[in-house]
Amino acid sequence: MTKRSFADKVALVTGGGGRFGRVMCQALAQRGCKLIVGDCDLTAARDTAARTAGLALGLDVTDPAMWLNAASSARDLFGPLDYVFHCAQLTADPTDAEGMGRLWATHLSSLEIAQQTCGADLTATGGIHILFVSGAAWQPDPARPLWSAAEAAKRSWHRAQLTGSSTVKGALIAYDVPPHPSRKTADDEIAAATLWALSRGDSQAFVPGGFGVKGFCQKASQ
């Protein structure tokens, strides 16, 4: 995958008013990205937009009309989209296989809608979708939580890529696997490591907890 930059690029962040979405918006803004902050809670989206010089929009990720409005608004204000960060629905991670299945079904259906509505812009810019999965929230194999959560996510991701109607590129970020059950990687570390991996051109990144972004970058480069 081609190495990527963020300066003067246009990014749509779903769930941008949530805890993780807000941190991702701030990390992108610090790198010079132009932001569309989408969230079903418009007040929260506006708060994030005010902090990042972005445009706040109401966005339910299951509503095609809202996706069309987001893509059109981005194009009118900044230009065609370069990135779509799917950060919605990360505030209540599932804890079992059934819940994970429901979450992935929602993720993948919203991804398909996003590809249909934003695909022309992303194809024109060589853009990319970025999805996240929390390994700490769902550990089908407690002995190898990162591996098992990431492998489950990769299977769903690749199945979606094979069956999807679009050729828009995507990246999968598995994150939040702590050294202790009660500890999670900080949101700003996940965001920084995600953008570092994307800048390298990686299509998959695994962000383990316990040693921070510097350690992650050193590990990933070995």
Question: How does this model look, in words?
Answer:
The chain is an alpha/beta fold. It has a single domain, classed as NAD(P)-binding Rossmann-like Domain (Rossmann fold). It is built from seven helices and seven strands, in the order βαβαβαβαβαβαβα. The chain has helices spanning 19-30, 42-52, 64-77, 97-125, 145-163, 187-200, 212-220; strands at 10-14, 34-39, 55-58, 83-86, 128-134, 169-177, 204-208. A seven-stranded parallel sheet has the order 3-2-1-4-5-6-7, sandwiched between helices. Helix 1 crosses helix 6 (187-200) and helix 6 (187-200) runs parallel beside helix 7.
Mean pLDDT: 75
- How is the biggest beta sheet arranged? 7 strands, parallel
Count of discrete structural domains = 1
CATH homologous superfamily - what is it? NAD(P)-binding Rossmann-like Domain
Strand line-up of the largest beta sheet? 3-2-1-4-5-6-7
Summary of the model, kept short:
By secondary structure, this protein is an alpha/beta fold. The protein has helices at residues 19-30, 42-52, 64-77, 97-125, 145-163, 187-200, 212-220; strands at 10-14, 34-39, 55-58, 83-86, 128-134, 169-177, 204-208.
